TrEMBL record:
InterPro entries: RraA/RraA-like, RraA/RraA-like_sf. Mg(2+) binds at residue 162. Catalyzes the aldol cleavage of 4-hydroxy-4-methyl-2-oxoglutarate (HMG) into 2 molecules of pyruvate. Also contains a secondary oxaloacetate (OAA) decarboxylase activity due to the common pyruvate enolate transition state formed following C-C bond cleavage in the retro-aldol and decarboxylation reactions. Belongs to the class II aldolase/RraA-like family. This is Putative 4-hydroxy-4-methyl-2-oxoglutarate aldolase. It comes from Rhodococcus opacus (strain B4). Homotrimer. It catalyses: oxaloacetate + H(+) = pyruvate + CO2; 4-hydroxy-4-methyl-2-oxoglutarate = 2 pyruvate. It holds the Pfam family RraA-like. Its EC number is 4.1.1.112, 4.1.3.17. Signal peptide: none annotated. CDD domains: RraA_family. The keyword Magnesium applies.
Amino acid sequence: MTTTESLASEYDEYLAEGRIWGLVDRERIKKIKFPRVPKEVVDRYLAIEDLTTSVSDVLDSLGIIGAVPASFLKPLAPGQRIVGPAVTIRNLVERKTPTQGYVDKDFIRMSTRDIYYLAEAGDVLVTDTAGDLSVSNMGAQSCTVAKSRGLAGSIVYGAIRDAGSIRDMGYPVWSSGVTPITGKFRIEAIEMNGPVTLHDVRVEPGDLIVADDSGVCVVPFEHAEYVIREVERIAEAEQTMAKMIIEGAPIDQLRPLFRKRYS
């Protein structure tokens, strides 16, 4: 079976299960089923205290551009952290003015509902609107659907709205900004579950998204287990070093640990 035939079969399967809204043309859905990092690996990430900083260091050691500072993707509410496989949407701006779209009663071509029903519990939605800060990619109703479907959170390279309502429902969101202006008749979901960009980081469906107060990291699917092993090793070494520093250990005992941490 070819890739196209497999995707068509998966689409029909999800349609029969009531998981296809049909708001986005099926040709724009690039993947439906794909490998995901096992939950036990996700849980190991969530057990790390300094999560994104540790992951960022290991990605650096692999030569992978994979971290976006909170300066560019801010958490809507402090103290939240998420880890989960990425599902993706890429948006483009509409050509027609939004007022004309309302007058013509156009079909609303921005849709997150489709992706929520293609997603699995624990997934993280990654939305790419090229960092546009003027119009909203999602609001409270969209996040209500996401939460009901069991998504872990959303990362929006663009703006959101209904910030207070989203905070109140406790759904984790990171975004480039906040706006009152709707994306209806202004942006269009051009592709789902294809590659997208977060600031300067590429994201593929199934990559592991790691986010906390410091920002967002993207761990390529094939590196997820190696990265957590290294992060756990580093965390153990730093706990040992912190204990020795508190106890007043001399520099000649600390120096080898420091070198090992950054080797």
